C-alpha cells in the first residue's frame, strides 16, 4: 500500500509514516472529492497552473508590502481569467474554486465580487433590455463591477440603509446621495481602487415616497483615466486582519446622477413620470444563498484540512522530548496531548467536507424542484445552510488556531501559513451573514417547526423529522464498540430535540411575560443553542451516512474511527446536555472518554496518510512546515533569507539610533 | 455619580451609558490598581508621555511597512530609555509596564530582551569579576544584548540543544559551533538586526566530555560597523502573525572563538587548563520565573480588558436592528447574545487582573522567605504560576477574539486594534513555556501532592490544602442569590479535587500497565484537565476574596455580579463535571443558567462604566472603535484616508493590468 507521495530524499520520519498507512491515499481522495475523474482533473489543473509562470508569485507574498500584494493579484487575475477556458467554469464548486485557489492563494482579487456578486445581481435583477445592455460587457470584463450594499453604520438591517436614490422626472435620472457619514458604503471588495462600476443598493424615493432599498448600476470611475467621477468619493478602507491584497472600499455620493435605466427593474420599476410599480411576486433569491453557503462550507473545510495537514506533517518530523529515557527524542505526534489537539480537527475537516457536498446536492435538488414551482424544501434548506455556515466557520477557525498552537513557535511564523489560513477563514464568521444573526435565523425556522409539532400538524422534510419523534429516556450507548450509527444518531436527535423544545418553552414564557420581540431577545441564547444542536446533529448524521457508503474496508476503517472520535468529542464537550435527566450515566460518560483515547491510538498510524489524502500540493499549501517532503528546517532557513530586513546586512536603525546611543554610553563609562 | 470621562461633543449614546453607571469609576480604578496614588501616577506618566513628541508615532503603525515599523521602534526605544528616570524603575510590574506600553503600543523593541533577559542572566549567572566587567556597560546600553537559547529544531527540551562550545586550552578560548541546520539559534528577539551581543546557551565540552548546556557572553557584531563578525551568520527570521516591529533572529556559528572569561561562571566553571568544576548548589531561578509570569498574567488581563473596553464602548454606540418594531434601531449592547459574548470576558479580565496582583504578592512573600533560606512555598507557587500562565493566556486570547467577532466587520479592520491585541496576546500561549508543557509541569506537582495526601503525609500550603479535605456528596447551591462565596469555593474545590484524584488514579493504572513514562503520556489529557481545574479554583477563590475586601457597596455590587457571572459561566461550560455523581441536580443547573441571564441584565447598565474604570486613555488604546468619545464613524473615515492605497487616486494596477484588460475586452464587443 505504498503512498505515491513517498520520494527519495524525503525526511525519513515522514516516509516511515507513509509506509505505515493502511490504505491507498488516492482511493481515499477519490472518495472525498467524488470520484477518480475529479482527482485526475485536479492533477491536470495543477500541472497547467504550474506550467504558466504568469500565474505564479514572483516571490512569496509574505514578503510583499500591501501595495506589492495588490499589484500582484491584479496581474494574476488578468492572467487567470485569460486562461479560464482550461477549466469547466460551470463547475465552480469543484474546478472553479480549485483553479482560483491555486492561483490566488488565500486572498481576494479585483474581480472577486465582479463574478460572484456584480454579474449575478444584474442577471437576477435586470429586466431583458438591461441584460442585453450589460451582460456581455460584464462577462467579458469590459468593466469591473462590485456590489455596494453595507454601509459604515449599517450592516445586517437593510431596511435602515441611508444612501438615497431620488428620482427626478425632469431629467429622467436618479440622484444618488449619501446624506451622512454613516451612509458611506463600506467594505465592498475591490471597491476602493479596482472597480469602475458598482451595483449600489439605495433607498428609492419617487414622488416623495420612500419605496425601500433597491439596486442600481452605477459608474464610479472614468473608463479612460480611471479617476473617480464628479460627485463620487471613493477609496480603500485600510489594512485588515487578513485579505490585504484586496482593496475593500468606501464610497460616498454627492448628488450624483445616473439614468433611469440604471435601476435594475426586473421586479420593481420606476416609470418615466416617476410612477413606482411594485414587484408582482417576491424574489426567490434563497437558492443562490444556499449555493454560496455550500461554497463557503467547502472553503472552510478545506482551510481546516490544510491546517491539519500542516500540523500533522510537522508533528511527524518534529522530535522533541523523550517519553522513554534514553530512547531518543520522539516525534511530537506520539504525545497524547498533541493527538488530542489535532485528530478531532481532522475528523471535523472530513465531516465538514462531506456536509459541503451534501448541501450542494440538496441545493441542486431544490433548484430542480423550483423549476417545477415546488418550494417545499426551500425554507428548511435555507435555514440549515444559515446554521451550517455559522457553526462551521467558527469551529473551523478554532480548529485552525489549535493546529497553529500545536506547532509551537514555528506556527507563529508566516512561513507556517497558519496566520494566512486563520485570518482568511475566521473572516467567514462575519461576512455573508454574521454568525449569531444566522443562528437566530435558523432558530426562527426551528421555532416554527416546534410550534407545528406541538400543534400536531408538522410537515417537515427529513432534516427536521426527528422533531416529531417521541422523547427517549435513555441513550442507546452500551459500549464504544457497539455504539452503532443508528444509536449515535438517535442520541444526537434526542439532544437536539430537547434543546429545540427547551428554547421553544423559554421563548413562549418570555413572550407571555414581555412581548413577542423582547421575549425573542430574552430567549436568544437558548435559541442559538438550539440551532447549534440541530446543526451538530446534521453534521454527525451526514458524516455517518457518507462513511457508510465507503465500499472498501481499508478506507472505511479509518473513516469510521474519525466518525467515532467526532461523535465522542462532541459528547464530551457538551457532556452536561448528555448527563441531564440521566440520559447517559456517569459510567457511560467515562467509557466515552476512554473511547476518545482509543480512537486517538487507532488513528495515530494513519494520521499522515489521512492528511495526504486531501491531495494538497506544496504549490497550493504554501507552508514551509507542511511540506510534502518533511524537510522543514533547511526550508525555514531559506525562507528566512528572503525577509525584507535581510536585504541589507546593517539596517539604517544602527546609524540613526542604536549606534549613537551605544557609542555615547560607552564614551561615558 | 458623574463619570469624569463625560465631555461635551461626545456621542450621546455613550454619555447616556456613563450617566447610568451606579458607581464612581475612579474609585473602581483605585480598587483595581491598588490605590489612589497608583491612579495618580498613571495620569502623571500618561501626561508626560503625551508631552514628549519623540515618544510618539509619526502616523499609525497600521500603515507602516515592516521596515518602517522596525525603524520606528528603534527610534522610540532610545528616547524611552533616555527618559526612563521619570518613572520608578524598581516598580516594573506597575510603572515600568505602563510606561513601556504607552510608548511601544503592543509591540517589542530592540531592547526588549536586553533588559528582561540579557542583563538579568549576567546578573544571575556571572561571577563577581564578570559583573564588574559587564554590568555597567550593559545597564548603560553601551552594547545591545539578547538571549539565544531556543534552536530551530529544539525548543522545550534544553538537554538536546545542539550548539557546542568546545574549550581549547591552548588558546584559552571556547569554540562555538553550529554543527547542523537544526542547531541554528532561532526566535530570540532583537537578535536579527539590533543586537551586537548575546548570551548564547551551548553544550559545553571540555577535556572531551560534554558537560551540558551553559551560558556564554558572545559578541556577534562589530561595535563600529555593526557588521556580523567573521564566523557568525545572523539575520531576521521573517514576518510573523504579530510582533512585526521586532527583528526576531537566527544565528549560526562557524568555529567562532570567544575568550574563556566569557563563559558565565557563577555556578559551573572551566579552569584555564580545561578542568570543569561542577556547581556546588543548584540554581534557584524559580523565583524569577514566577515574577515573569506575574507580569505575563497582568499583561494578558490588560489585553483582554482592552478588547472588552473596545467592544463594549462600540456596542453602546452601534445601533442595529429593532427589538420593538417602530421603536428605532437599538444599541447592540441590548441584545442578550451580545451581552453573553462580552460580559463573561469582562468578568474574566477582572478575575485575571486580581490574580496577577495576588501572584505578584506571593512572589514577594516567597522572595522574602528565600532570603531566610525557607523554600517551602516555592514549588507550589512555581507550579501555580505555570498553570495560571497556561490557562490565562488561552482564555484571554479566546476572549479577545469573541470581542472582535462581536464587533462584526469593523472588528476585522486594523482600525479596531483587535488584530493587534489578539496576535500579541495569543503569542503568550507559546512563549515562556508552551501551554500544554506548562499544564503538565503543574500536574507533576499536583500528582506529588495527591500521592502525599493518599499516603496521609501531605504538607501543603493554602493553595492546595483543599486536596486534603474530605469529599463532598452535594453542591451547596440552594439558589443563585443564596450561593455564598464559601459555597462557591466549596463546590469548585470539589470539582478540582475530583479531577486531581481521577488523574492520579488514571496515571497509576497506566503506569502499572505500561511504564512510568508511557503511563504519564497516556494520562496526559487527564493531567491537563486536573491542572486546569486547579487553576480555575484558584482564579474563582482569588476573585471572590478580593471582591470581599471592597469596602464601598457601590463598587462591591457590580463586582459581585461579575464574580457570579464568572462562576456560573465556568459551571455551565463544564457542566458535565458538576452534574456527575449528582453533585448538582438538573434543576440546579437550570437555575444556574437562569442566574447567568440575570447577571447579564444586572450588569448591562454598568457595562460602560466598568470598562471605563480600567483607565485606558485613547493614547493607549489606539482603537477607533473604542474611542472614549464614541464618535467612531467620522474617525473610521478619517483613519481610512491614511491607507497606503489612498496616496494616489489611481493605482499602477490600472495602467499595467486592469485598464488594458477592460479596453481590449470592450474593443471586441
Automatic annotation (TrEMBL), chains A, B:
Q: Which Gene3D superfamilies match?
A: Acyl-CoA dehydrogenase/oxidase, N-terminal domain, Butyryl-CoA Dehydrogenase, subunit A, domain 2, Butyryl-CoA Dehydrogenase, subunit A, domain 3
Active site residues per record = 432
Q: Does the keyword Protease apply?
A: no
UniProt-recorded Gene Ontology molecular function terms:
acyl-CoA oxidase activity; ATP binding; FAD binding; fatty acid binding
Q: Where does the signal peptide begin and end?
A: none
Q: Could you tell me which InterPro entries the record lists for this protein?
A: ACOX_C_alpha1, Acyl-CoA_ox_N, Acyl-CoA_Oxase/DH_mid-dom_sf, Acyl-CoA_oxidase, Acyl-CoA_oxidase_C, AcylCo_DH-like_C, AcylCoA_DH/ox_N_sf, AcylCoA_DH/oxidase_NM_dom_sf
Question: Which residue ranges does the record assign to the Acyl-coenzyme A oxidase N-terminal domain?
Answer: 24-143
**Location of the protein in the cell:** Peroxisome
Give the UniProt record's GO annotations in the biological process aspect: fatty acid beta-oxidation using acyl-CoA oxidase; lipid homeostasis
Keyword vocabulary terms for this entry:
ATP-binding, FAD, Fatty acid metabolism, Flavoprotein, Lipid metabolism, Nucleotide-binding, Oxidoreductase, Peroxisome
Q: List GO terms (cellular component aspect).
A: peroxisome
Tell me which residues make up the Acyl-CoA oxidase C-terminal domain.
487-663
- One Pfam family from the UniProt entry? Acyl-CoA_ox_N
**Residues that bind FAD:** 150, 189
Q: What family name appears in the similarity comment?
A: Belongs to the acyl-CoA oxidase family.
Please state what the protein is called: Acyl-coenzyme A oxidase
Organism phylogeny: Eukaryota, Metazoa, Ecdysozoa, Nematoda, Chromadorea
Amino acid at each position: 500500500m505504498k503512498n505515491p507521495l513517498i520520494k527519495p530524499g524525503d525526511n525519513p520520519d515522514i516516509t516511515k509514516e507513509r509506509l505505515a498507512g493502511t490504505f491507498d491515499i488516492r482511493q481515499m481522495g477519490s472518495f472525498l472529492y467524488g470520484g477518480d475523474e475529479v482527482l485526475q482533473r485536479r492533477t491536470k489543473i495543477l500541472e497547467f497552473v504550474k506550467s504558466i509562470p504568469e500565474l505564479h508569485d514572483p516571490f512569496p507574498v509574505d514578503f510583499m508590502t500591501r501595495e506589492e500584494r495588490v499589484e500582484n493579484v491584479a496581474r494574476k487575475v488578468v492572467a487567470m481569467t485569460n486562461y479560464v477556458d482550461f477549466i469547466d467554469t460551470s463547475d465552480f464548486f469543484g474546478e472553479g474554486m480549485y483553479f482560483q485557489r491555486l492561483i490566488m492563494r488565500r486572498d481576494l482579487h479585483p474581480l472577486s465580487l465582479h463574478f460572484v456578486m456584480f454579474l449575478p445581481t444584474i442577471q437576477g435583477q435586470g429586466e431583458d433590455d438591461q441584460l442585453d445592455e450589460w451582460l456581455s460587457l460584464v462577462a467579458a470584463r469590459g468593466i469591473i463591477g462590485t456590489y455596494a450594499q453595507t454601509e459604515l453604520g449599517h450592516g445586517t438591517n437593510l431596511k435602515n440603509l441611508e444612501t438615497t436614490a431620488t428620482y427626478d422626472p425632469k431629467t429622467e435620472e436618479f440622484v444618488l446621495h449619501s446624506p451622512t457619514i454613516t451612509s458611506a458604503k463600506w467594505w465592498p471588495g475591490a471597491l476602493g481602487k479596482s472597480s469602475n462600476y458598482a451595483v449600489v443598493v439605495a433607498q428609492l424615493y419617487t414622488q416623495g415616497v420612500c419605496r425601500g432599498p433597491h439596486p442600481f448600476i452605477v459608474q464610479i470611475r472614468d473608463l479612460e483615466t480611471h479617476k473617480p467621477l464628479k460627485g463620487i468619493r471613493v477609496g480603500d478602507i485600510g489594512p485588515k486582519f487578513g485579505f490585504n491584497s484586496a482593496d475593500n472600499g468606501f464610497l460616498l455620493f454627492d448628488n450624483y446622477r445616473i439614468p433611469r435605466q440604471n435601476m435594475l427593474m426586473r421586479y420593481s420599476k420606476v416609470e418615466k413620470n416617476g410612477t413606482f410599480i411594485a414587484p408582482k411576486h417576491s424574489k426567490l433569491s434563497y437558492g443562490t444563498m444556499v449555493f454560496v453557503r455550500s461554497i463557503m462550507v467547502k472553503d472552510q473545510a478545506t482551510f481546516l484540512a490544510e491546517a491539519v495537514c500542516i500540523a500533522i506533517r510537522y508533528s511527524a518530523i518534529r522530535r522533541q522530548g523523550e517519553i522513554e529515557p534514553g530512547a531518543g527524542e520522539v516525534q511530537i505526534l506520539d504525545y497524547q496531548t498533541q493527538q488530542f489537539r489535532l485528530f478531532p480537527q481532522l475528523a471535523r475537516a472530513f465531516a465538514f467536507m462531506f456536509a459541503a457536498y451534501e448541501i450542494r446536492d440538496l441545493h441542486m435538488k431544490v433548484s430542480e424542484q423550483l423549476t417545477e414551482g415546488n418550494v417545499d424544501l426551500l425554507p428548511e434548506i435555507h435555514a440549515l445552510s444559515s446554521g451550517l455556515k455559522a457553526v462551521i466557520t467558527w469551529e473551523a477557525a478554532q480548529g485552525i488556531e489549535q493546529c497553529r498552537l500545536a506547532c509551537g513557535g514555528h506556527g507563529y511564523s508566516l512561513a507556517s501559513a497558519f496566520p494566512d489560513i486563520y485570518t482568511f477563514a475566521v473572516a467567514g464568521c462575519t461576512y455573508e451573514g454574521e454568525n449569531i444573526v444566522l443562528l437566530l435565523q435558523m432558530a426562527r425556522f426551528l421555532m416554527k417547526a416546534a410550534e407545528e409539532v406541538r400543534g400536531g400538524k408538522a410537515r417537515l422534510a427529513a432534516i427536521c423529522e426527528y422533531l416529531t419523534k417521541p422523547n427517549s429516556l435513555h441513550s442507546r450507548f452500551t459500549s464504544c464498540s457497539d455504539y452503532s450509527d443508528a444509536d449515535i444518531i438517535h442520541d444526537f436527535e434526542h439532544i437536539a430535540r430537547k434543546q429545540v423544545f427547551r428554547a421553544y418553552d423559554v421563548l413562549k414564557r418570555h413572550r407571555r411575560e414581555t412581548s413577542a420581540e423582547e421575549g425573542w431577545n430574552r430567549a436568544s441564547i437558548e435559541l442559538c443553542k438550539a440551532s447549534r444542536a440541530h446543526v451538530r446533529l446534521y453534521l454527525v448524521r451526514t458524516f455517518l451516512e457518507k462513511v457508510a457508503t465507503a465500499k472498501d474496508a481499508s478506507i472505511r476503517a479509518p473513516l469510521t474511527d474519525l466518525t467515532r472520535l467526532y461523535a465522542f468529542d462532541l459528547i464530551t464537550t457538551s457532556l452536561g446536555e448528555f448527563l441531564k435527566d440521566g440520559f447517559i450515566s456517569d459510567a457511560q460518560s467515562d467509557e466515552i472518554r476512554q473511547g476518545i483515547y482509543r480512537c486517538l491510538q487507532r488513528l495515530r498510524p494513519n494520521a499522515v496518510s489521512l492528511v495526504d489524502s486531501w491531495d494538497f500540493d506544496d504549490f497550493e499549501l504554501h507552508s514551509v512546515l507542511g511540506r510534502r517532503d518533511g524537510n522543514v528546517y533547511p526550508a525555514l532557513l531559506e525562507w528566512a533569507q528572503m525577509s525584507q530586513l535581510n536585504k541589507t546586512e546593517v539596517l539604517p536603525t544602527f546609524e540613526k539610533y542604536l549606534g549613537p546611543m551605544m557609542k555615547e554610553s560607552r564614551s561615558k563609562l
